[in-house]
Specification:
This protein is of the alpha/beta class. Helix content is about 25%, strand content about 30%. The protein is elongated and about 65 Å long.
């Protein structure tokens, strides 16, 4: 009954496969659903038996494998090249070595999204540095999952491996367990890499509150002339007074100099007492939201209505 329904309704078939006997699995799906569009998620593990050459015949499999997800490592020796897929995701390991080999990843053409979780032991490798580059997809997410990692260095090394930077419109650099910045020189290289992606419309990035770090951030924003949505995640070592000064300085810059920006979101570590933000010179709409990490919204500033709302901490009601 069900094969007939698939044949009549011509619905899309989505399946998750592993690397073992991959071509045989795909052939069975094509034989079973000859009239249907097939989309496959290829799940790669890090078992020794899967470390042999990974030979995908892009001509016979083209249009089937749309997503690839790997556990902890991506260091499979690839034979074929220019394999088109929609998305690639690498999970992280809490304790084991984590390897991202750009010599292998560069064999793919990834159109939509790359999502990389950076663990405590990530190693970035490229056997042939000249060829270990990958064309930018539309969206990239770099997520740090260990607060002791020098995340600016690793994220910068990853961003430096992208070509065709104009393709990317959405970049997220974040952490779910807090971030620390010790030196402004670390963020300087990272922000310089980010500003090469000139067509970014959505950006999420950590920021520090030292004066030099703020200057680096503002210089990056000057180069991103198409940015519509900006989210800034405060690092753990910021103090409340530092955060307050940084929020005021960045907000004033955005109000006066980033006319194309529509939303500015701050994610702070501390409650702040914000002074008056001058918005009379802003004609284009802009909403500034100030949140204290995943707990409550403290301020919302709307330049279009001229309103600044301050919220109580406990019940999130306005004063």
């Amino acid at each position: 009954m069900y094969p007939q329904l698939f044949d009549v309704q011509r619905c899309k078939v989505i399946a998750s496969l592993n690397k073992i006997k991959l071509e045989q699995q795909i052939k069975l799906l094509k034989d079973f659903f000859p009239q249907n569009q097939i989309e496959l998620l290829l799940e790669l593990t890090s078992e020794p038996k899967e470390q042999e050459d990974f030979n995908i015949d892009k001509d016979s499999l083209k249009g089937c494998i749309t997503r690839i997800s790997c556990n902890e490592n991506f260091k499979f020796p690839m034979i074929d090249e220019n394999i088109p897929i929609q998305s690639f995701k690498m999970k992280r390991s809490k304790y084991q070595e984590q390897i991202l080999d750009f010599s292998s990843l560069s064999k793919f053409i990834i159109f939509d999204q790359i999502h990389l979780k950076i663990g405590s032991n990530l190693q970035i490798r490229q056997q042939n540095a000249q060829n270990a580059y990958i064309s930018s997809p539309k969206k990239v997410t770099l997520e740090s999952v260990n607060r002791k990692v020098d995340w600016p260095i690793l994220m910068n090394q990853i961003l430096e491996r992208f070509t065709n930077q104009e393709n990317m419109s959405d970049l997220h650099m974040s952490s779910k367990c807090g971030l620390r910045i010790h030196q402004s020189s670390l963020t300087s290289s990272l922000f310089k890499s980010v500003q090469n992606f000139v067509n970014l419309k959505i950006l999420t990035t950590p920021f520090g509150c030292e004066s030099l770090m703020i200057d680096q951030l503002l210089q990056m924003l000057r180069e991103l002339k198409k940015l519509k949505q900006l989210t800034l995640n405060s690092t753990d070592n910021n103090q409340d007074q530092q955060e307050c000064i940084a929020v005021e300085q960045i907000s004033l810059f955005v109000i006066s100099s980033k006319q194309e920006l529509r939303t500015l979101n701050f994610m702070l570590s501390n409650k702040i007492m914000l002074g008056d933000i001058e918005i009379k010179d802003r004609v284009a709409p802009l909403t500034i939201t100030i949140d204290v990490y995943c707990q409550y919204t403290q301020y919302v500033i709307d330049t279009e209505t001229g309103q600044t709302k301050f919220y109580r901490i406990k019940d999130n009601n306005e004063y």
